[in-house]
Please model this.
Amino acid sequence: MMIGGPDGPVRAPRLLLVDDDPRLLVVLAEQLRDDGFEVTTARDGAEALRRLELAWPDLVILDVTMPRVDGPTLAREIKARADLPIIVLSAIDTGDRKAALLEEVAEDYVTKPYHYPELRARITRVLRRLGDRLPGQRIVLGDDLVLELHRRAATVNGVEVALTPTESRLLYALAANLGRIVSTDTLLVRGWADTEDADPSYVWVTMRRLRQKLETDPNRPRHLVTVRGVGYRLEADTR
Model:
């Protein structure tokens, strides 16, 4: 399906909706299609994986509690294949469970019963957030560091290193502004937009962890540069 855009027709975002509630699948899929999305549905994790063998969506919406392959297992399997954005849609509303899924595999978490306009806005926001234009899928920052954020991975001195979704979100924001300062507040929004009482220390801790992963000498970083009192800058090193 193509939809109109300022520069002519553009492809409608493709969504994969996974839930074991057949009524929800029908109703939500119809709502999303009415809003211009292309929607494929699956009634459990195993069926979803078969769908993924045929075509990759732009975003996955999945339930936590499902037969055969549950939501967290499915999400991990998806992320192992490609860094597709995931929104969890679940009746489970415990803070610890939400925080764990957001840190490990999910870009957002919506609690059932959902309010459709809110869910649609979250879908749009995640797609827009991940629409940051990077200087290519493979970003060479020096002879010691290559980022492949579409795979949620980096190569450090010839060794591949996996990145968490939160780490990838921060690096997306930095790479989209290569050589320019990105404020701590902006990174906090990118990494933890829906976390209550998110604190700048979240950014500091994650950036420290990224330096441990990505820098040859974390104490003298060549790429992840701190601009004290302001934020961070991602630098290419051509030495």
Summary: Helices lie at 22-34, 45-54, 71-81, 95-104, 116-129, 165-175, 184-192, 200-214.
